[in-house]
Amino acid sequence: MTVPDEPGPDGRRDELARNxxxxxxxxxxxxxASGRERGSVSLLAxxxxxxxxxxxxxxxxxxxxxxxxxxxxxxxxxGEVAELRRDASPRWHFVGxxxxxxxxxxxxxxxxxxxxxxxxxxRALDRAASAAVEDGIRDGPLPVLLQYSVDGDPERGGVPDxxxxxxxxxxAGLPGLRLEGLMAVAPLDSEPxxxxxxxxxxxxxxxxRHPGATEVSAGMSGDLETAIGHGSTVVRVGTALVGDRRITxx
Length: 250
Fold this sequence. Notes:
The protein has helices spanning 9-33, 52-60, 71-84, 103-106, 119-134, 164-172, 192-209, 224-229, 239-242; strands at residues 42-46, 65-68, 91-94, 112-116, 142-148, 177-184, 215-217, 234-237. Helices cover 42% and strands 16% of the residues. The protein is built from 9 helices and 8 strands. An 8-stranded parallel sheet has the order 7-6-5-4-3-2-1-8. It is an alpha/beta fold.
């Protein structure tokens, strides 16, 4: 069996452009179906395992928010992308589990951490972000989202519902952090409508307690329509945009 050659740079860019156009159509259609304004939902392109050259192509196509989930890989890639596109200003979001000993690795380049799910991680981020401001590495508090656990399973990560208020109050009081909202992943074995309804309920309670926490980062390639129907403001999309990619070269 012959394996097809990888598309060249121009062919890959065209493929990304087609995927991006189709994805934007899906987002716009989902907004219309739920009675929401076009543009009320932003796209976070999940670029984990995608080479820097393709991230640069996405920037050329107008994608500005990029999601990574491995601190060391992302730090290296952010540097490479900066070299490739010196005139671009990508917003890097960390969307994976973050170990406390990797916090300082992400602070120089990350725009927002979306996976704060414990007091210990929150305090580690606060200390590092405050130090980064003092050192001139950052110009203000680090924006964060609280990762909410829909089913309370500790293996999946996220803060369970009964601990969400306490964590929110802690984060809101830390000078090095700025609480911007909630992030969640619908469990694969859950019924999507029920899962996103639960996420919407948690987001509503969080915003009632902390009015500035308006972001709801929920929904991915396979379920973004349901997420948008339940109030998501950010959809995190990898496969539908970049395919099942692995870094081979940069």
